[in-house]
Amino acid sequence: MKDDAPSQALPDLVFHVLLALGQGPTHGYAIGKDVEEQSAGRLDPTTGALYQVLRRLADEGLVAPVSGPDDVDPRRKYFALTKAGRRAAAQEAERLATLVRAARQRKLYPQRA
Amino acid sequence: MRIYRCLLRLSPLSLRRDYGAAMEEMFARRMAEARQAGTSRQAYVLGRELAGLLVIALSERFGTTARMRRRRQQLLSGPKAGMMDVLAQEIRQAARRLVRTPLFTTTAALTLALAIGANASLFTVVYRVVLKPLPYPDSERIIALDYGIPARNLASGMNSMAWQLYYQLADHARLLEGIAVYDSGATTLTGRGEPERIRVTRATPSLGSVLRLSPALGRWFTEAEGVPGAAPVAVLSHGLWVRRFGSDGSIVGRSIALDGVPTEVIGVMPARFSFPDSRSDVWTAARSTRASASFLFNLNGVARLRDGASVESARAEITALIKDLSRRVPNQTGLVSAAVTLQEAMVGRIANALWVLLAAAGLVLLVACANVANLFLVRSETRHREVAVRRALGAGGRTIARYFFSESVLLAVIGGGLGLALAWGGVRLLVAFGPANLPRLDEVRIDSVVLLFAAALVLVSAAAFGLIPLLRVAPVAATLHEQGRGQTATRGSHRARQLLMGGQVALALILLIASGLMVRSFQALRAIDHGFDPSATLTFSIGLPAATYPTRQAAVDVHRRILEGVSQVPGVSGASTSTCLPLAFICFGNGLFVDGEAEDLTRPIAIVGFRAVAGGYTDVMRMPLLRGRSLGRDDIDRRESNVVVNKALAQAYFPGQDPIGRRIRSSRMGTPWLTIVGIVANTPTVAPGERAPTAQLFMPMSIAGGPDIPREALIGPDVTIMNYVVRSSLPSPSLVTAVRRAIDNVDPNLAISQVRSLQDVVDRASDQTSFTMVLLAIAATVALLLGAIGIYGVISYIVAQRTGEIGVRLAMGAEPRTVARMILRQGGMVTLLGIVAGLIAALAGSQLIRSLLYGVSPRDPIVFSLTTVALLVVALLACWLPARRASRLSPLQALRTE
User: Cα–Cα–Cα angle for A45, A49, A53, nearest 5°?
Assistant: First the structure.
């Protein structure tokens, strides 16, 4: 069940996960850490929640499991952004940027210093 | 980690299959990180992760996936709300109702938690010990070799093997894929710190293929290592490897010293592996050849059945092969295979007790459910009007059912959750205090099967106490008509409540009788005359390293010097030593020939336990001397071939004759004659108060076996390992210190082990009875308590319902005493009916508990009458309290409650 409607907002956690993968392929634990840092502690998904999101993203083709380095725990799973994933992240960023622009126009948010 | 994995199993298959391992890894890393931040952080992260997993499991199962959510939104906007939303709403409302009546909720939840906790913890033990297959591949095909001698009325229990028989079966048994023999003993591990006595199991290399073992490190023995002259090799247990060698990964290939013999470590077994039991520290390869194979029955055997072979067919084949063997080696006639699966051999003895305990816990759960159902009935009574209004407004039967059922399910879930927490602690208690001889205790832990069982319990109990009020309430549609004057509850609800009360009485009585029978058994066991005096004694065992004491004479000398030293410790009134203490099984068994009688090898021969002793052993043990004299120091020093026998031996070999002065010898070829000089009372070998005492023979240790005595010339047990008995009224710790000092004066390198009193030995042997007794007593107490509360509740409620009526009666001049009697009669009738039902059930079920009892009939009239009276008193007391309250009502007050 893919939904490609461009205006569809991505859930918060999903966007953060895509953001975390923007730096390149990495594994669940590191994604969790990055999400927590990027959201300044606002989001701190449990292992279960994180993998639920990762699986949904994998099902929808936004991320894909990739093989990791040889010298780490073989149980560890690495994920990378797919093209569709990059597009989805870009769309979401665009949507947020549009909102920020609108906020600025209405003087709700300071202009760039 | 285990819990996490269990919970993970709840989550949907696709998630688990693809990412389960990765999730475990991440969880482990997070826990490791939290561990550094302190305990509270650790607990927080653990709780959060587990809760997170549960939420995932629930949401994935019950569909808040993107697709489901969209569909639900459609449904919400449509005319009808979705199933899940209605359910969620119903549960929310039920929760609110429960919170509003905290007393009811806590009582019901705690009652359920206790009962579910008890059931879950006992089920854990039963499942892990009795039901779960042994941790070997295709373990149902592994059998333990056991024999009986039907001619001697011995169906089984001679589970021993001889090398001759081993080769016979290994060469000719077609139904056995493999066969292995082993025996266990003690050895001294030296080097790297204190010398230590450890348990060694010598096994044929074939044990590896019979059990399909795979060591965690290194390898198992090869066939070539099982022949005489091969370099000594050993496989370590995981426990010993961690404890003694600091989990050294490079241990394989290194040398350790066992009894002073350098031995190469070739492997380490996995942590979970324990064979033949959890005490095994090290395994070595037993060495033998066909040429040197003896007919000494001092080994144990296991075998693996071929695919498709049944235990019965294997028994028939083994019996035939024994017959064939005894034609060539005329001995051991009448041996019949009594092989059973290894699992049955390990746990068969205790399984019965565990099932009885689980059944007892089940009865407690029933009592608890009856109590909660009662509470619900009372509650539903007050809801009549509410329900009637709902019905009048058009709520259908199903809506009403959901209304009540959501409460019971929610309560059961809360109770179940608390119960699991209790079970977690309970299992730990059971493991810590369970009898030492409970097999597979190290395998007991809560796992997903137990979680499933607990979930099933929750559902069943929710149904049990949820349906009763439902049945009562649903048909009542005319309640609105009843208006406020309907104080007396309907006849139907009375009947339901009285049925519950009677049932509780019956169940409580069954449990009381069962625990009463166990108490009597325990008393009988304690009162047994053991044939020796276990009080004020200390026992310990000393094993001599063969390198330092290479001959029997050297061993006998050092034992005598130790005894001399120990005897001089102030406060010690006697000391001696034997190769085998009471309750330590047969140890060393053989048949006997009597001088002057034909040495007919085809005749069934009673097995005799041979014990090599120091002077005065039977005196220090205070074994009553029935005739003749005991063995003294002179017998040992002069290596006299004099022996003392026990009563069972005299009866088996000299029926109606005087054995004193007669000569006997071991049924092994070419052994010397021994003269009987005395007869002592029987002592138990397996269990206190055993029905068939084993024939025993006590010989001077100076003529028995030793390291330099070839196995073929052995006429008695090896005196390298001896069990000392010290009789003293000194407190144990100071006595041990003094004894240790005395031994150090002789040889400071000797390790002493198994330090305990004879009373401990006896207690440990009756562990299983006391364990069962304590648990049954707890179950009975809880049932009695819950039952009393239930009765009290029901009668109080009846009194409250009838307050108006009572007021009228009192106003009309009824005596308060008559009123009290009326209430009492009502409760008493139900109690009596419950007692009758309980007695019938207890009599009918008495066979179930028979095998657990000792010296008491399962229909013991004393137990039956005492427990019945006790229950009657408690029940009447529970009735009397509300009855008295009723009689003290003032008529005015009573009438005003209308």
Answer: 110
Nearest CA in chain B to A72: B25
Q: CA–CA distance from B407 to each of B395, B463, B818 (Å)?
A: 17, 11, 40
Sheet holding A26-27, edge to edge: A26-27, A78-81, A63-66
**Which of A85-89, B332-336, B623-627 has the highest average model confidence (pLDDT)?**
B623-627
Mean pLDDT, residues B705-720 taken together:
79
- B236 touches B281 (CB < 8 A): yes
Q: What is the CA radius of gyration of chain A?
A: 16
Residue numbers in A near B62 (CB within 8 A): none
Name all contacts of A13-17 with Cβ < 8 Å and 24+ positions apart. Answer: A13/A43, A13/A45, A13/A49, A13/A53, A14/A53, A14/A56, A14/A57, A15/A89, A15/A92, A16/A43, A17/A50, A17/A53, A17/A54, A17/A57, A17/A63
Question: Number of Cβ pairs closer than 8 Å across A and B?
Answer: 71
- Please report residues of A whose CB lies closer than 8 A to that of B26: 27-29, 32, 47, 50-51, 76
In one-letter notation, the amino acid at residue B703 is I
Q: Residue B83's pLDDT band (boundaries 50, 70, 90)? A: low
In this predicted structure, the answer to whether residue A2 has a pLDDT above a threshold of 50 is no
Q: Among all residues of chain A, which has the CA nearest to that of B8?
A: A48
Cα separation, B303 vs B142, whole angstroms: 6
The closest CB to that of B25, out of A52, A55, A73, belongs to A73
DSSP percent split of chain B into helix, strand, coil, nearest 5: 55, 15, 30
Please check whether residue A2 touches B, CB under 8 A: no
Q: What is the CATH number of the domain that holds A95?
A: 1.10.10.10
- Mean pLDDT over residues B828-835, rounded? 89
∠ Cα B12 B16 B20 (to 5°): 155
Separation of alpha carbons B683 and B623, rounded Å: 8
Q: Is residue A55 part of a domain?
A: yes
Query: Which of A47, A52, A75 is facing B60, going by the closest CB pair?
Result: A52
ipTM of the complex: 0.84
Task: Give me the residue from B15, B30, B51 closest to A51, CB to CB.
Answer: B15
Residue A82 lies in a domain: yes
B19 vs A47: CB contact, 8 Å cut-off? no
**Using CB atoms within 10 A of its CB, is residue B72 exposed (0-12), middle (13-18) or buried (19+)?**
middle
Domain count, chain A: 1
**Candidate from A29, A52, A65 with C-beta closest to B56:** A52
**What are the pLDDT digits (tens) for B363-395?**
888 888 888 888 777 777 667 667 777 777 777
Q: CA-CA distance, B359 to B353, in Å (whole number)?
A: 10
Do the Cβ atoms of B52 and A54 come within 8 Å? no
Cβ-Cβ contacts under 8 Å, A56 against chain B: 65-66
Average pLDDT, chain B: 81
Domain map (residue ranges) of chain B? 1-61, 146-338, 487-528+767-896, 537-756
Predicted confidence band of residue B78 (pLDDT cuts 50, 70, 90): very low
Please tell me the pTM assigned to this model: 0.64
Residue A2 lies in a domain: no
Predicted confidence band at B69 (pLDDT cuts at 50, 70, 90)? low
Does B15 contact A55 at a Cβ distance shorter than 8 Å? yes
In the structure encoding, which two tokens stand for residue B358, read together? 């689980």
A13 part of contact set with chain B, CB < 8 Å: no
Give Cα B320 distance to the centre of its chain: 36
Residue A38 sits in which domain range? 12-105
What average pLDDT does this structure show over B320-341? 74
Q: Which residues of B touch A (CB under 8 A)?
A: 11, 14-15, 18-19, 21-27, 29-30, 48-49, 51-53, 55-57, 59-60, 65-67
Comparing CB atoms, the residue among B18, B57, B66 nearest residue A1 is B66
